[in-house]
Amino acid sequence: xxxxxxxxxxxxxxxxxxxxxxxxxxxxxxxxxxxxxxxxxxxxxxxxxxxxxxxxxxxxxxxxxxxxxxxxxxxxxxxxxxxxxxxxxxxxxxxxxxxxxxxxxxxxxxxxxxxxxxxxxxxxxxxxxxxxxxxxxxxxxxxxxxxxxxxxxxxxxxxxxxxxxxxxxxxxxxxxxxxxxxxx
Amino acid sequence: xxxxxxxxxxxxxxxxxxxxxxxxxxxxxxxxxxxxxxxxxxxxxxxxxxxxxxxxxxxxxxxxxxxxxxxxxxxxxxxxxxxxxxxxxxxxxxxxxxxxxxxxxxxxxxxxxxxxxxxxxxxxxxxxxxxxxxxxxxxxxxxxxxxxxxxxxxxxxxxxxxxxxxxxxxxxxxxxxxxxxxxxxxxxxxxxxxxxxxxxxxxxxxxxxxxxxxxxxxxxxxxxxxxxxxxxxxxxxxxxxxxxxxxxxxxxxxxxxxxxxxxxxxxxxxxxxxxxxxxxxxxxxxxxxxx
Lengths: 184, 291
What we know:
The complex is a heterodimer of chains A (184) and B (291).
Chain A: H1 3-12, E1 17-18, E2 22-25, H2 29-35, E3 38-52, E4 57-71, E5 78-84, E6 86-88, E7 91-95, E8 106-113, E9 120-123, E10 130-136, E11 139-144, E12 149-152, E13 158-160, E14 164-168, H3 169-179
Parallel strand pairs in A: 2-12, 5-9
Antiparallel strand pairs in A: 3-4, 3-8, 4-5, 6-7, 8-9, 8-10, 10-11, 11-14, 12-13
Chain B: H1 2-17, E1 21-24, E2 41-46, H2 57-70, E3 78-81, E4 102-106, H3 110-113, H4 120-123, H5 126-130, E5 141-148, E6 154-162, E7 168-169, E8 190-191, H6 192-204, E9 206-207, H7 232-241, H8 253-259, H9 271-290
Helix pairs in contact in B: 1-9, 2-6
């Protein structure tokens, strides 16, 4: 590692952490899978944020191109994902703990349909239901960085969300499908 | 150069070990400006219904939670209570003058009260229309903050607490037996002050830290009440950002000049002084590369 890259790495220790405050019930991968109507692998295409509910709240809708369906509607080639918060003009609104999707992100999403006429989905378990797909030495891996979440466990303890993975994509898919074995 | 780096490393590590962290504007690259309030008197208001499980004592517990952040004498940031309100609306209206920083309990899930087909079910915002809990059911509380994308200046911060699922309490003893959604409120369940003092830290502009003793640590035990008070790192963060009689430490250029230590992100006192030689070393490396 060069001196410059070493220094940059040290400097990164001093940067801020993203905002977040939420304590949310911990969901294991199998629980996430069972609580989802649709589990897809895909790529975020574009996001649009807008004011809703009398202009007090911002929501973001992100189009996700589906490359693989791990659970749910086998016809889904593209889904629209609703996340609370976002940026409209010079104003940003953040709802602590909600997942973020940026165009180009390769992800596995655990989704639940929102009621209403428009076919919109939301991520299950806030940031817990969003995983990244990364490539390393020619292998596809699934990881989830520790979101700014505290997780509430059944014994009542609250602990920081830990990093998930990296897990080979194939193994990840098998766990999801096994959790839903015998279910539609 | 190597010797200089060797001397610098332990200092950097030591500074980080007992540090507070600031929240920042989320961007695709993850390094937007830090959040801050331009004013030192921040109004807040409580929804008059308080918590159904804890009753009227929930309002006193909420007031006490804000007061905790008013106490350190090294900062003149002050939360000022406005009259109780019947407002149930969180968020921010850029054209309104009556934006308020609201604390409100949601006692029913939106799934139970919103009529089928209502537009808010797909668009969002049912919480403001029906006073219900709209987020993931297993979430205890969420803070909605609104701020300037360019500067990080905070405009509004609202806290919603999930009374639809969780039992909130204000008593000191005894500890409850059970889980946070099943216990009676006359024992320490989800302690309101423990929850709110931490949430208000986010309103101030602080983020979670790695020190388990700090109020802003990202962990707690069921029935915990230790986070009703501030610890040294929390106070350090508050006072570094909003020092009494001195300008607010922002991440924008004018404030850097005033404070002389960058944005103060993730820093305790003096970390900026350590950060400066780091930049000097980086710049020296760049110059040498060009030569």
